[in-house]
Amino acid sequence: MTTAMDMVNKINLEKEAWNLKVRVIRLWTVPTFTGQLLPNSMEMILVDESGCKIQATVQKTMICRFKQLLSEGRVYVIKLFSVVPNQGSYRATRHQFKLIVQFRTTVRDAICDFIPKSTLTISPFTEILETKEDSDFLVDVVGLLVSVSEEKEYDKDGKKMKMAVMELAENDHRIRCALFGEYVDELNRFLSSGCVSYPSSLGFTTIFL
Q1: What's this model's pTM, rounded to 2 decimal places?
Q2: E strands within the chain?
Q3: CA distance 15 to 18
Q4: Please, are residues 22 and 67 in contact by the beta-carbon 8 Å criterion?
């Protein structure tokens, strides 16, 4: 008997047993900035066949258990996770809730051609430039790359990491995006490749404006 799948837009706090078939469209780690090798968390953006997105978090103690099971771009059936309110800074989706991967969470490979491989919600430059307060939400941007600063060293609580600033243009408007750590390396690989399209692996969703 086939188990019915739940839709992401139906997720709430009232139900516990959810069954999701979703694609991991973005996956990244959040550093600790304290010199520890293990990241603070592993973050994902999941999307179902309707195109609805939700953020999922693998906490530090669970990363070793799940990092080999989850890959960006793949489709999975995920069960037995926790649902919590989507609060705080750097929220990657507008969904009211987010998922927390637990020790009991199960992840199984699946196939579904109906689930989109990318669901960007592009923010116009004018909208970003008119924002007068810091936003708690990450944004997707697409623009013409017009300049890249020299690579610098950024010091955060004694931990040094690479930093570079790129400038993007949309018509007569420009914004600057700061890249840190491995994203500087991704940008350098993209620039040295001579590719004329934007790098698919470079996560504009994770750029802090």
Answers
A1: 0.81
A2: 19-30, 41-47, 53-59, 75-79, 82-85, 97-100, 106-110, 144-148, 152-156, 159-170, 173-180
A3: 7
A4: no
pLDDT in tens, 112-136: 999 999 888 888 999 888 887 777 8
Grade residue 202 by pLDDT with cuts at 50, 70 and 90: very low
Q: What's the half-sphere exposure (Cβ side, CA atoms, 13 Å) at 171?
A: 3
Burial class (CB in 10 A: 0-12, 13-18, 19+), 167: middle
Supply φ then ψ for residue 197, to 5 degrees: -100, 165
List the structure tokens of 49: 């066949």
Please report the pLDDT score of residue 180 as a whole number.
86
pLDDT at 207: 38
pLDDT digits 0-9 by tens, 130-149: 887 777 888 888 899 999 99
Cα–Cα distance between 57 and 51 in angstroms, integer?
19
Do strands 53-59 and 97-100 pair parallel, antiparallel, or not at all (unpaired)? Answer: parallel
